[in-house]
Amino acid sequence: MIAISAVNQDRELKVAQGKVPNYTIINKFGTNDNVGTTMVPITRAGVFQTPTTAQSLEIVSSSSDDSSGGTGARTFYIQGLDENWNLQEEIVTMNGTTAVAIPGSWFRVFRGYVVDSGTYATSSAGSHAGTITVRGSGGGSTWMEVGLIAGFPAGQSQIGVYTIPAGKTGYLWVKHFTVSTVKAANIFLFQRINADDTTAPFGAMRLIEQNDGIAEPYNYQPKFPLVSLAEKTDVGFMAYVATGTGSVSVDFQIQLVDN
């Protein structure tokens, strides 16, 4: 058993290093500090946009310091899926409170972070000044927020949802939950297959796992994947609490394999 474990660990390390062709490790984590009694996605913005047509997007900050010559975020990285459901990545130069168009058309956005900053970050000074928002062009709906945690800049999105790119199969392995100490949360894992079906009948969204009354940190690391996810499948976590509001976080890992 020890030898087998060592072999498996060595292989997974090589996958993470990008040394195993056709395999990729995706680490995702999300937080929602305002989970109420209605089911919501575990994302910082409390939303995850799933349009049926690819959209034009823009990025803006609540602070003028997040700009090309400012003391905050100067450039920002966005990752998601393009109009063909392929992985798409862009680095955009910020312009403070003036929205900047993000190149390309987007079906999904599931990661973003500050790349360059005008401040050498420390434990008391972060890498951006305001809340950075990715939204639909012309001041449209919010797709992603990177904000402040207890007043400190996060620098990174927190989106507990992912979509399997075209030409890939995903295997969900590890999950970890945390919740507010005074709240118990009900946490649900959903998938929606054939997300590219844009006319009826649509690919169904369905529950594939339910975790009730989570009040303590919870970690699950099975020997085998929890679920296999076909290309163009949305997969993510949603939650609600019984009364009031609470904070819920999730971490999970997906291994992508080229088809």
Could you explain the architecture of this structure?
With 259 residues, the chain is mainly β. It folds into 2 domains: 20-47 and 160-258, Jelly Rolls (Sandwich); 55-153, no CATH class. Helix content is 6%, strand content 50%. Strands 1, 13, 16, 17 and 19 form a 5-stranded antiparallel beta sheet that branches. Strands 2, 12, 14, 15 and 18 form a 5-stranded antiparallel beta sheet that branches. The longest helix has 15 residues, at 2-16.
Quick structural overview:
By secondary structure, the chain is mostly beta strands.
Question: What tags apply to this protein structure?
Answer:
Jelly Rolls, 5-stranded antiparallel sheet, globular, mainly beta, 259 residues, 2 domains, disordered N terminus
Q: Could you give the topology of this structure?
A:
Blueprint: H1 2-16, E1 23-35, E2 40-41, E3 55-61, E4 73-81, E5 87-93, E6 100-106, E7 108-117, E8 132-136, E9 142-146, E10 148-149, E11 152-153, E12 161-163, E13 168-179, E14 185-192, E15 205-214, E16 218-220, E17 227-229, E18 234-241, E19 246-258
Terminal-residue CA separation: 31 Å
Question: Major β-sheet, in short?
Answer: 5 strands, antiparallel
- Classify the beta-strand content into a percent band: over 45%
By secondary-structure content and strand pairing, the structural class works out as mainly beta
